[in-house]
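PROTOCOL LOG
Step 1. Enter all chains and additional molecules of the complex.
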Amino acid sequence: MSKNTTVSNSVIRRLPRYYRFLGDLLSQNVAKMSSRELSEKMGLTASQIRQDLNCFGGFGQQGYGYNLAELYKEIGNLLGIDNQVKTILIGAGNLGRAIASHIDFNKRGCNLIAIFDSDESLKGTEVAGMSVHHISKLHEFCKENEPVIAILCIPKTGAQAVADDLVSMGIKAFWNYSHYDLQVNYKDIIVENVHLGDSLLTLTYRVNNQ
Amino acid sequence: MSKNTTVSNSVIRRLPRYYRFLGDLLSQNVAKMSSRELSEKMGLTASQIRQDLNCFGGFGQQGYGYNLAELYKEIGNLLGIDNQVKTILIGAGNLGRAIASHIDFNKRGCNLIAIFDSDESLKGTEVAGMSVHHISKLHEFCKENEPVIAILCIPKTGAQAVADDLVSMGIKAFWNYSHYDLQVNYKDIIVENVHLGDSLLTLTYRVNNQ
DNA sequence: TAGATTGTTAATCGATTAACAATC
DNA sequence: TAGATTGTTAATCGATTAACAATC
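Step 2. Run joint prediction.
Step 3. Record the structure below.
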């Protein structure tokens, strides 16, 4: 059902939001919807919704609209929700622990299988139902379990070194919370930088400039 | 020194990143830099950097480049770092506590002055050196202290009601971590939605599609 | 069938890049 | 002065919106 054209980054960034809204509508027992109705709920144009969805295939039906259950399933497939990619988390500080507990990884196509920290005193402590490993066990663990995604909740200092290590151990993607822009260095590795500080600063800017 | 043209959202989103890179360079004692050198460090084009900065004023010098200390200060002023906007946080769960402790608010132009939660059992517990207030004290507190920014680390259910309340109490801006898109409802209120789940899902998509 | 709404092409808009004259 | 690099205008590129024929 999917087309062979390259999908732009702008479209990819909107997919999770579509998925979220569709899930909500389904839980309210809405069965079908036109692009116009959906556009009003999401604050987009109907045109954009139709363009976006048609990057992947013709999920609608002329004269009817979109079957939401079907569309939800299709987008879930596109995202790869069922793949349950093996994921590890590095850094069990405040933020790392919150991410581990707060994010529903399974619903986002990921399976969090281990947490590591360099602090000896955190070794063995429980986070999100898992026991924290010391970072010295990382190499052995990766060899055995071949995780694909690494979440970095570590300080800027050392982020580069840890990322280099992880790439050499076969990690293919980073969800990066460190104050460090990883994409600069790795061409073939997938990186999603989450700069919470930058996000707050844009808010600050807008508050101070109307 | 600032110009009167409206600044596009794309430019605003890049400002914090410029600020971050400039801060790093200064801490490495780099005093001056041309747009081309900076573009190589940041993975942008020199043209874009010059265009971006000229939205706000001519901060460079022909034949020389940019004085980094001066540029850093200018961007800090634009962002409003020194304004120290009064900020409150609603929701002292895993995520709320991590945000409170992990983010350096003062460096981002904000002053976190109070934390609230609806859970009676959290009342009085310490988070980031502050004592958690029960949500019933919110109205009185806002009347007295007039906070401007509210951080929402609460579940989707109730987010709407809490946000409505906060708007009526004079809150002007939201840093929203709830799984709920606030911008749909308020036209004049500034909202920065942080959808960590959506961020992870785009990574999942890319991992599963090359 | 008639009405509705998609899928898709064409037009518009905005953002990025290139080019270069101004100038330090 | 000559060289370098900005500030700014013009050209290009990409993303969004509008329009409409296809079709359920």
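Step 4. Note key features.
The mean pLDDT of chain A is 95.
Chain A touches chain B through 58 residues (CB under 8 Å).
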